Amino acid sequence: MPEFWGRLGLPGLADVHTHFLPPRMLRKVWAYFDAAGPLVGTEWPIRYRWDDEARVAHLRSLGVRMFSALAYPHRPGMAESLNAWTLDFAARTPGCLPSATFFPEPAAARYVADALAAGARVFKVHVQVGGFAPTDPALDAVWGMLAEAGVPVVVHAGHAPVGTVHTGPASFAALLARHPGLAAIVAHLGAPDYAAFLELAERYRHVRLDTTMAFTSFFDRFVPFPAAELPRLRELGLAGKVLLGSDFPNIPYPYAEQLSALARLDLGDDWLRAVCWDAAAALFDLG
Ligand SMILES: [Zn+2]
Q1: What positions does the domain Amidohydrolase-related occupy (predicted)?
Q2: Rounded distance from Cα 247 to ligand 1 centre (Å)
Q3: Which of 27, 57, 107, 217 has the most CB atoms around it within 10 Å of its CB?
Q4: What pLDDT digit, counting tens, does each position of 36-81 carry?
Q5: pLDDT at residue 149, rounded to an integer
């Protein structure tokens, strides 16, 4: 990996989509993947089942200089304590973006304002696991606040791996129609509806995409990216609208597979530099 980014002349890698959560909750997430629960839908043997320190050390050894701690609730009443944990984790972990989340519930606007005041620089919501519509009225004030603050929010909005009534490009487009200034980062390039999400990133100035799991042979088995759309992905990447994401540690293959997958696309070194570092460096003001 250091050879990969060194050859590109980069100072390292910026990965906007990694997960660190309270250890008890992470064990539950892993158990869910182990059981291939209904929202996972396929065998998913997680590779990096290590404690926080070992996983941070591994990211550093790979040259990942910026990462996130994307936690997300699956029911009401959880988000605020997750935020306390992820913000504390970032404060004691150099390189980790202060991360926060929310859920459609009456307290959301208050605790999102608190998280912003505490320095949150990236948010995450998972429409599939959360089981809510992005346009849920209980979130309207939250989206407005994030758009105004210009703070990015990683949204798992696509149908993959298993769609629900709230996932997919139509619900997400409805959200953007209401909040066109939202700095949303569409996780997994919006898989499997790549073209529809590329179109939203083209149409809305502040909408970006992350590469999480896309193009890996694991992902290609069930949600392959259409080759005909690669020129659009190239343009968006060169415009700084595609960010490296990996889903580390919840991946069933080595981290380097994400980078090999991006390199295999053969979209050029400028594209790789933009995706692996420059886009995030601009968005998050990395030195
Ligand atoms: Zn993820």
Answers
A1: 15-286
A2: 5
A3: 107
A4: 777 777 788 888 999 999 999 999 999 999 999 999 999 999 999 9
A5: 98
Q: How far is the CA of 268 from the centre of ligand 1 (A)?
A: 26
CA of 269 to the centre of ligand 1 (A): 26
Structural domains counted in the chain: 1
For 147-161, what is each residue's pLDDT tens digit?
999 999 999 998 888
Q: Work out the pLDDT band at 129, boundaries 50, 70, 90.
A: confident
Question: Who has greater pLDDT, 167 or 280?
Answer: 280
- State residue 33's pLDDT score: 83
* CATH code of the domain in which 245 resides: 3.20.20.140
Q: How far is the CA of 17 from the centre of ligand 1 (A)?
A: 6
- What per-residue confidence (pLDDT) applies to 164? 85
42-46, 196-200, 208-212, range with the lowest pLDDT: 42-46
The parent domain of residue 195 ranges over 2-283
Taking the centre of ligand 1 as the mean of its atom positions, its distance from the CA of residue 273, in whole angstroms, is: 22
What separation in Å is there between the alpha carbon of 19 and the centre of ligand 1?
7
Phi (first) and psi of residue 25, to 5 degrees: -75, -35
What average pLDDT does the structure give for the chain? 95
Cα 238 to middle of ligand 1, angstroms: 24
